[in-house]
Amino acid sequence: MNKAVRPAGFSSANSEISESPSGGSSPQKTLNSKLKVISLFAGIGGFDHAFDMAGGEIAMQCELDKFCQSILKKHWPKATLVSDIKKLRPEEMPDADVWTAGFPCQDVSLARGNHGRNGLKGNHTSLFFDLMRLVEAKRPKVLLLENVVGLLNSHQGCDFGVILMELIERGYAVSWRVMNARYFGVAQSRPRVFICAWKGDYHSATEALFEPKRSADRGSERAGFVTQSKHSTGAIVPQLAYCVAATSGRHTGNDWSRSYISYPDAVRRPTPTESERLQGFPAGWTVPLASVPQPARGFDSERYKSVGNAVAVPVVAWIAKRIGGIVAAAVKRPEEIDLPEDVLKLAPELRNATRVLSFAAIADEIRAGTFVRKWKSGGVACRDMIIEGTASPAPSKIVPARFVDALDATRPDESYFLTANAAAGILRRVKVVGRTLFLPMSVALEKIVQAAGESPIDEGGDSGGSKFGKSSIRPARTIERGSFRTDRQFSAGVEIRAD
Known about the structure:
Pfam families: DNA_methylase
Protein name: DNA (cytosine-5-)-methyltransferase
CATH topology of the largest domain: Rossmann fold
EC number: 2.1.1.37
Shape: globular
Distance between the termini: 60 Å
Largest sheet: 10 strands, mixed
Keywords: Methyltransferase, Restriction system, S-adenosyl-L-methionine, Transferase
InterPro entries: C5-Methyltransferase (IPR050390), C5_MeTfrase (IPR001525), C5_meth_CS (IPR031303), SAM-dependent_MTases_sf (IPR029063)
Number of strands: 20
CATH superfamily of the largest domain: Vaccinia Virus protein VP39
Helix content: 25-40%
Radius of gyration: 23 Å
């Protein structure tokens, strides 16, 4: 326990909590005036849409991708839109209470595998330091960041230590938590790490991501992936999909096998509209304005990519409502702080496997790039103290959702369905890596291959009916993978080209 007079700018107090309609709890008061928000790396506006629903006002957006820019202009025609964060000057930015940033994750994503991961030194994620350049100059009250869970172990945990150091040294208290969209009202398992940095206020940073009561019992992690649901079009899907990927409808790494949609004798990938629903966007969100020139092959590739790179809107909406309530409450903090007990009262989740460490003791190793740590799934960092624990990815009130409810009302055209070649490739790869497919999908894939006249071959051992002549199968590309342990028995860790 560390009792002390509150350092300038740092605070601690309790505020009133009430149940929110979307589950969990949030500060009781609402905003008297709109919360000003700047959205960096805005994508198609997942953060923006969530803060809109929480009563915020989008003051500026920054996004480099031309297709994403067209979607932002469609939904926020009056917001200032700039393209390149590297060229953005602080004096060009309006004042805002909250900055959001889903900074690019290609260099730390689990789908790349350890050998393909460049961490914060990569060309994409190094844009984080452009964000810090702007933070240094403008010092917004709140930063809300999102990234893949791989950020916690990128470069053996050193990269996440750098992020904490960059924020703490600028006077921010920082909380982080791995949260899974499946518990917030969307039918996909999408774990992501959210980071909330609050200028000089560890209480508010903690309350933004954690509730003062334990999370709900999540039940069986496996059940959602094997329970079957049938749609009026004849489609059969598990109750829960896995991640919507940013690969033109083709799923990479650990996320492909449970997002396909099965029929008795066919398998297809989700349509762009279904992918939007699985991310919590309204259907048609990424349909561009008529003035946007259409590529010869249509907009599907751009829509898949942009939706797959987006945040799950309901998770951000849950956080945005909490942030808005905290800002509106404007609670005066007492002069004393009590670490780590204050944090553990505000976030009882962190009492699971709690670890406390001194930032001063690890700062030199972080700067030298030699720091090694397996960060836990939740924590709070304030000045010299870091408190972390094994936090649940769910709120105190889970919002259920079903994959089948995200499906389109009519069966799509044949361009979304897998060829026999793709079906054979999936079955063969599943055999190689020893994974288990969703049963209706496995049966349908076998039927597709058999109907096309593909013939099994004897390669030694039991083929199980899922080995086929080499002349008719294009090899699948293996991608080294990592994932939450609860998902490992369900996915094959490969990329299948679905022609």
